[in-house]
Amino acid sequence: MLSPERIQALCESSRPKLEAMRAALRAHGSALVAFSGGVDSTFVLKVAVEELGERALALTALSASVAPEEAQEARELAEKMGARHVVLGSNELANPQYAANPTNRCYFCKTELYDICEAKRMELGLAVVVDGFNADDFKDHRPGHKAAREHAVRSPLADAGLTKEEIRAWSQSLGLPTWDKPQMACLASRIPYGTAVTRDRLLQIAAAESELRKLGFRQFRVRYHGEVARLEVAAEEYERFLVADVRQRINTAFLALGFKFVSLDLEPFRSGRLNEAAGVTKPVTPESRGFALPVVS
User: Fold this and answer.
1) Fold observed for domain 187-270
2) Which of 22, 82, 93, 179 is the S-S candidate for 171 at Cβ 3.0 to 4.6 Å?
3) For domain 4-184, which architecture applies?
4) Residue 195, pLDDT above cutoff 90
């Protein structure tokens, strides 16, 4: 978690980036924000509402790959920010290319999302679709960026060069409850590449992760391996598994959901481990996204 001193320093050093982002949003005149309720898209929506008011619209697409808690939180966040908000269904599971779970699965999911966003943008006469892609995302395996480029989606955070830490710092400064929210990803990311993504598996994973949230766990993943649920948790939460009652409650809940075995990974959670296992960790460069990061002094 960022300290107050670190937050202040980050805000002071990145203020020109934020002003560049604000100016870019104003220049668009209106925008549809692809809004998941995560740290990045929440910050984009907040700034868009401040700069564009009613000319900013948040769109949240829901499917079985979105945890119920995330869907509800997105609704509540949009309401608190006074943002116009629409929630529409997404059906990426109907695409066999997505369901087969290749290493570029996110491309097919984002294609579905941006098709929905573009249709709504055109219906309402908004100028542009914007997403929450940030400067640090260039370092990760993000096949969904191809879909964003194909749909002319703009990324105000990356355009301004804002990093994840800077976004969290500014989120705290603006009073957003998501400033220290753990990293999130769609539920399909819990299933190893090559293992089919099905509605039943997504619902099983969602229910299992809900059980962990009820017990107060914050940063974790329930990885699906058929009969086995493999838990990855943050290093600072490991000690909780020393308590027999916690282990028993998790095991009992997961067995009731259809898993036959429950294991705790000896390596703490960190984003991208399934990408590493699949050998798809080559960083995405600004050039491959279609633009270069600006130099902001």
Assistant:
1) Histidine-containing Protein; Chain: A; (3.30.1340)
2) 179
3) 3-Layer(aba) Sandwich (3.40)
4) yes
- Residue 94, classed as helix, strand or coil, is helix
Residue 233, phi then psi, degrees to nearest 5? -130, 160
* % residues pLDDT > 70 (the chain): 94
Measure the CA–CA gap between 49 and 137, rounded to whole angstroms: 24
Which residue in 246, 176, 191, 251 sits closest to 217, CA to CA? 246
- Given this model, what pLDDT does residue 1 score? 79
* CA distance linking residue 10 with residue 263, whole number of Å: 39
Write out the two tokens for 91.
């059906």
Q: What is the pLDDT of residue 281?
A: 65
Query: CA end-to-end span of the chain, whole Å?
Result: 26
Residue 83 bridge partners (DSSP): none
In contact, 25 and 129? CB cutoff 8 Å: no
